[in-house]
Amino acid sequence: MRAMRPLFLSLIVAGLAACSDTGGQQAGQGAPPPPPVTVAKPVVKQVVERDDFTGRFAAVDMVEVRSRVSGYLERVDFEDGANVKAGDVLFVIDRRQYKAALDQAQATLVSAQARLNFAESDLERAESLRRTGNISDQLLDQRRQNFLTAKAELDRAQATMQEASLNYEFSEVKAPISGRISRRFVSVGNLVNANDTLLTTIVSLDPIYFYFDVDERSFLAYNRVFNLDASNGSGEPVAVQIALTDETKPAREGKLDFVDNRLDEASGTMRLRAIVPNAELFITPGLFGRVSVPGSPPYQGVLVPDEAIATDQERRLVWVVGEDNTVKAQLVRPGPRIDGYRLIREGLKGDETIVVNGLQRVRPGAAVAPEMTTLPPTR
């Protein structure tokens, strides 16, 4: 045992020396390298802030088709749901009685015209005889009375003729406007009462209205920026963008053409209306949609990706990379999304270099290994 003790001590010393060498090597390596992050300049371009509201399409013109004369329905001349033009014949009421009344009125008119012609000739002869003294004043007055009576009867016959002609014309129910017609509400053979029986309805499709309500604060902002009262008259109308419920982006444009004259006290909203072209007749009255209204005049805005914005309790911040590759937190006030980016209302000028990817590896005041990228104008 005494002979092995020096050997054991030498092994311990060698082990301590090896450990000392390893520790020195680790100390010589220093701190870990800076974490890699992706950085970019914010997108700076002209933007317009927009607000979205929900509304409903409505027809510019809507007509309930009724007959102006009574009678039994004889014919239906349209297909349910078809597009019709103003003046197209839709329904035909039994015309025989109105044709007979028209023929009778024509005969009465011819008879009245003949009596008037005879009374006029008789009066002219009487006036000629009066100048020679061969007719009494009483007889002249009587012939003048006959002439005036015949003239009045002719006027009455003409009025009766016009009424009979209108009734005969009204026995064909025509489309008062162009648009899409609904189904027939009355079948052939049923009695139609004048101005009472609803036959069908027609709605116009091109253009089409879009009604929506905005809150009081938004209305005041729009009115200050665009002067909606002036745009409702002779001024330039405000352009809006509209999307249907199955569209992710607005695909249709319209113009504001109406602002209601009072605020709805119950809801605290103002009713606005846009007129939208519908040449393809795709939009149907009653559909819902989303309208995007410009909420500001055009200005140079600073845009950043949503993933570049960090959250610190109730605050929003971005990481700004300095010239020495160290990062610092910059508080910002985000706005709405525009072209796939988030608008920054306050906090950035647009010439900063910010971290857009790798935020979880960033620490305040620490250095990073930035990898520069360029953000496209639209995502």
Describe the protein.
- It contains five helices and 23 strands.
- The protein has helices at about 5-30, 95-130, 135-170, 215-225, 230, and strands spanning about 35-40, 45, 50-60, 60-65, 70-75, 85, 90-95, 170-175, 180, 190, 200-205, 210-215, 240-245, 250-260, 270-275, 290-295, 300-305, 310, 315-320, 325-340, 340-345, 355, 370.
- α2 packs antiparallel against α3 (about 135-170).
- The strands form five sheets. The chain has a six-stranded antiparallel β-sheet with strand order 2-17-21-20-19-18, with no helix packed on it. It has a six-stranded antiparallel beta barrel with strand order 3-12-15-14-13-16. A four-stranded antiparallel β-sheet has the order 4-11-9-6, with no helix packed on it.
By DSSP, the count of extended strands is 23
| N- and C-termini, Cα separation | 81 Å
**How many alpha or pi helices?**
5
Gyration radius (Cα, Å) is 45 Å
Helix/strand class:
alpha+beta
Which key terms come to mind for this protein?
379 residues, alpha+beta, 6-stranded antiparallel β-sheet, 6-stranded antiparallel β-barrel, elongated
